[in-house]
Amino acid sequence: MAAVLTGGVLLGAVACGGSSTVEAPTTAADGGGTSSGPTTLPATAPASSSAASTNPKDAAFVAKMKSQGLVASDSDILGAAGYVCSALSQNPNKQYQEKTLPTLVKAMIGTSRTGGGVSAEQADKLATADATKLIAEAKTSYCKA
């Protein structure tokens, strides 16, 4: 178990099966005395929400992308779609849209294709296909809605 007090914030790590209560010394900002008391840390990090937005446009877009085989989280799909719309409106340069934008979108959603026995080469191909699908669908529906 490790715990570090920095600027009044306790940073700690809890090993599996270990206690999540540590004694954290604190020092007054004026250099005064120290006091200690138990500080309870959560045993696990809070779960992040991957649920689709309550916005019907967002939910429909995520459903469409997942029906086309994307395995990225809802928030990653929506973030990438928003980025595509913004990039298309701000940078009409053809080379940017054909070369740079797909690379950036692939980086945003492609990590979901790694692991699970998939080779790096296959994961890259799948991520490239995912980025192409997302950009095309964002152009035709999401950015226009």
Please provide a written account of the structure.
The chain is of the alpha+beta class and 145 residues long. It has two domains: 2-40, no CATH class; 56-142. 47% of the residues lie in helices and 17% in strands. It has four helices and four strands, in the order ββββαααα. The protein has helices at 56-67, 74-90, 94-109, 120-142; strands spanning 2-6, 9-13, 21-27, 34-40. The strands form two sheets. It has a two-stranded antiparallel ribbon. Strands 3-4 form a two-stranded antiparallel sheet. A hairpin with a 2-residue loop joins strand 1 (2-6) and strand 2 (9-13). Helix 2 runs antiparallel to helix 3 and helix 2 (74-90) packs across helix 4 (120-142). It starts with a strand and ends with a helix. InterPro entries: DUF732 (IPR007969). Residues 57-143 form the DUF732 domain. This is DUF732 domain-containing protein. Residues 36-54 have a biased composition (Low complexity). Residues 26-54 are annotated as: Disordered.
* Overall structural domain count: 2
SSE order in H/E notation?
Answer: EEEEHHHH
Let me know the largest β-sheet: 2 strands, antiparallel
Q: Unreliable runs, pLDDT <50, ≥5 residues? A: 4-30, 41-52
- Count of extended strands: 4
As laid out across the biggest beta sheet, the strand order is 1-2
Distance N terminus to C terminus? 51 Å
Q: Helicity, in percent?
A: 40-55%
Indicate the overall shape. Answer: globular
The number of distinct helices, counting runs of at least 4 residues, comes to 4
Structural class: alpha+beta
Average of pLDDT: 75
Rg from alpha-carbon coordinates: 22 Å
Fraction of residues in β-strands = 15-25%
Protein name: DUF732 domain-containing protein
Domain DUF732: 57-143
InterPro entries: DUF732
Region (Disordered): 26-54
